[in-house]
Amino acid sequence: xxxxxxxxxxxxxxxxxxxxxxxxxxxxxxxxxxxxIVNSPNSSINKNGKxxxxxxxxxxxxxxxxxxxxxxxxxxxxxxxxxxxxxxEYKNGNLNLYGFGQxxxxxxxxxxxxxxxxxxxxxxxxxxxxx
Length: 131
Ligand code: HEC
Fold this sequence. Notes:
Blueprint: H1 2-23, E1 26-28, E2 35-37, H2 47-53, H3 57-60, H4 80-91, H5 101-108, H6 113-126
Antiparallel strand pairs: 1-2
Helix pairs in contact: 2-6, 4-5, 4-6
The chain binds heme C (HEC).
């Protein structure tokens, strides 16, 4: 009996620990030894999204503020569901909003579902990244 409770407790701790690392990292603040949040969700966690965005910004602007090739809408801050939907549709060759669907198909074709989710999350946060 005892062992079962121990096992359950460990399972709960492990499960909640995993969830934490998804949203933010906790660390010890060395100056006062307190356990504080050292990384905000925006900063270093979504590295993959940020990395992918480096390929997009030439056309969409550093912060997603530009109309790509003077055609697209500015996408900074666009909600992630919309971006995920659009990128998947571009990838499948099913979306062509302004006559440049083929171009975006090329951009999206190498992105995995996870890449698409990560970059969509990054784009959603662009509007809030330091002005
Ligand atoms: C070579 C320039 C170029 C690059 C690089 C590029 N895009 Fe685009 N993007 C466009 C153009 C042009 C359109 C309009 C396509 C159409 O006609 O539907 C567009 C459309 C979009 C849209 C839909 C915007 C709307 O108006 O609703 C999204 C979202 C998007 N791009 C995301 C991305 C992402 C994410 C990347 C990087 C992986 C990327 N783009 C890379 C040029 C580019």
